[in-house]
Every structure is written in C-alpha cells, then in structure tokens.
Amino acid sequence: MTPLERRYRLLLRAYPPAYRAAHGTELVGVLLDCAAPDRTTPELREAAGLLTGGLRERVRHAAGGSAWRDGLHLGATAVMAMQLAAMLPYAGSLPLWGVLSALALLAVVRGRVRLALPFVLLTGAKAVAIASGQQLVDMTMLPVYPGFLTPRPMFVASAPATVAVGYGLVCCCLLALSAGEAPRTRSWWWWAAVPFLAWAGPQWMAAETPIPISLSRMALEVAVLGLAVWAARVAGDPRWALAAALYLLVVSDQLGEHFAVLTRQHLAYWGLLALLTALAAFVPHGGRRRVLLD
Amino acid sequence: MFCGMPRGTDEVSEPMYYVLTALLDGPLHGHAIMKIVGELSDGRVKPSVGTLYGILERLGDRGLVTVDREEKVNGRDRRYFRISDSGQSAVEAEARRMHEAAALVMKRTSFA
What we know:
Chain A has 294 residues and is mainly alpha-helical. Chain A has helices at 3-11, 17-34, 44-62, 67-87, 95-109, 113-131, 160-178, 189-198, 215-235, 239-256, 264-282. In chain A, helix 1 packs antiparallel against helix 2 (17-34), helix 4 packs antiparallel against helix 5 and helix 6 runs antiparallel to helix 7. With 112 residues, chain B is of the alpha+beta class. Chain B has a single domain, classed as Winged helix-like DNA-binding domain superfamily/Winged helix DNA-binding domain (Arc Repressor Mutant, subunit A), CATH 1.10.10. Chain B has 4 helices and 3 strands. In chain B, helix 1 (14-22) crosses helix 2 (30-40). Chain A binds chain B through residues 22-23, 25-31, 33-34, 43, 45-46, 48-54, 56-57, 60, 63-64, 233-237, 284, 286, 288-292, 294, and chain B through 1, 4-14, 17, 29-31, 34, 47-51, 53-54, 57-58, 61, 76-79, 94, 97-98, 101.
C-alpha cells in the first residue's frame, strides 16, 4: 500500500463503517486514478470532499427508518445525558445513583429502552426526592455537596416539579418506544458530552444567578444543535428537529422556573437554542434550488 | 443498494445536472463520469471524488440513477451507473426549463 493510498484510507474513516466496507475500495481506486503519479499526499480538494462526503453519508444512513421514533430516541438520549451530567459531580456521595443513571444512559444508547425504563424511574424518583429534601431508598445527607466539576450543591435551585418534568418526559419517550421495533444503537460520543454538560466553567454569568449556564455547556449545545440543523437540511428529515424540541422543552422548563430573575444572558442563551431548533424544523422544507440559481 | 434509503431534498444542483447528462450516453463508472463532467463543462465543474459519489447516492435515492453492473478491474471494484427513465425525464425537463429561460433573454438582446 502506497503512502497516498494509506492517507486516503485514513480520510475514508469519515464514512460509516458499512459504506466503507461496501465501497471503500472503489472510492480509493478512483482517487488513485485521479492522482498524479508522483503524488504522496491527498489533494486538499479531495480531502475536503471525502470529509464532507463522509459526514453526508453518515446523515443519509442515520435518516433511515421511522423519523418520529428515531427523533424520540435521540431526544431522550440527549436529555438523559443532561440528567447524568446533573448527577456526575455528586457521584462520590451518591455512587449507587450515579451508576444507575449511567446504566440508564448505557441502555438507551444501546437501543435497550425497556431495560432503561426501571433505571430511569428509580433515578428519577431519587432525584425528585433529593430536590424536595426527602429520603428515598437510602439515607442521603442533604444538601449533597459536589466532589468536582461544580461548586453548587445538588438541585440547590431546582424545584422537585422541574426535576420531575425532565424524568417524566424521558419515561414517556421510553414507554412510546418500548412498543415495536427496538431503536438503533447510538454513538459512544454521547458519553463525551456528559462532562461538558456537568462542568460549571468557564463562567460567563454572574455567580449569584440561581441557574448559571456554563460556557462549556452552551458551546456544546450550540455545536450539537448546529449539526442537527445541517443534518436536517442534508436529509430533508424532521427527526433532528423533534429531538432538539424535546431537549429545548426540558431546558425551557429549567429556565422558566426562575423566569422572574432571568438575565439577558439567559434569554440570549435560550433564544439561540430556540432559533437553532426552529431552523432544524424548517430547513427540511426549504425551497428547491435549481441549476440557474446555483 | 439504494432501496429503502431516504429521499433527501429534491434539489437538482449543477453538478447533478452534469452527472445526469454524462450518463445519457450509457452506463459509466465513477472515474469516467468525472472525466466527462469536466469535458462537458469545459473544466468548470470538477467535483471531488467524495462529492461525486455523494451525488450518485442521492440520485440513486431519488431513483434517477441505478447501478447497472459491478466489475473488478486491475483488482479494483467498479460500479457502472445508469440513468433511469425518471432520471432521463428529469434532466430533459431541466434542460427544457433552462432553454425557455435562456430564450427570454436572447429574444430581448443581441443574441436574437
């Protein structure tokens, strides 16, 4: 294998594994046919084409099957990543509940929604109990102080009803998904999102605000929703908008609880998420682009 | 291969138009399509390999092209793509539309 072929094969990793297995050799053959005989590094144009082509192919493959079921599953996965992130800084004090929350996310990522449901119910009930200052299943010292990632005690500014809405929404999604074909497995990258959602830094809001949103969380959410808009445009499919709307619903509920004390930064943050969600909903219905308008 | 895949958007971009036009003369493999698209457009449209195969997949999803046959040449896999009846109708409709649009300008200018 020549260095050029090896580098093209490396770039082909942007494509889904199934596509690579079926057509990877063919694409490499055409790339080598197009390359100058003495060339050892890929042309920039070809490298960019492979990266964008691979991402488009991933979106094309992801857009198969029922859009509403997949959208529900994707939205539930995102909300559960946020719920695990809310638990993560306190895992030292609540190891059992941290593990159960992680198992719930693991089951959902692997498409095992029926298995995830009892874990979500248990962790949800415990989270609501902590938010309301009650004891459930085991004795918990309240308030629960963090071990890392954030300085704030657990659910210090969250009403039990707000916590219940998030877990209730996930339960409804999982119940709806438990009938019929099992959802597909999702990317392991969802685990990488959890520490970014849990980390309270870098701070950009006043420390005294009851619901500070960190820059790491906002940057991740904006990046993921931006990808959702792009995927919705490429595939012309509503599943990403449905998932984004579910996530936005939970964030809106969390912010709405403190509506009277929200700052302009909070409103800008919410507005950005809402704008990206609306774009994901409307771009699949964008006008037809014709040759003359290119 | 294309069965069961989503339709995607129904836009016909300029590279798609040239790919469909190249296939009007008969089934072609990827490298040949690239060369003919370059010739037809006087080198103006030169899709990268990743872009070309993305276009072929999308045209396949919409039923405008199909895989005619697969071969192995010098140890390399090759798919030959063929334009379908609906692909031929689509490219003809697009050509007719552009012709009519061009005529609007030509009959009002020195082209007439």
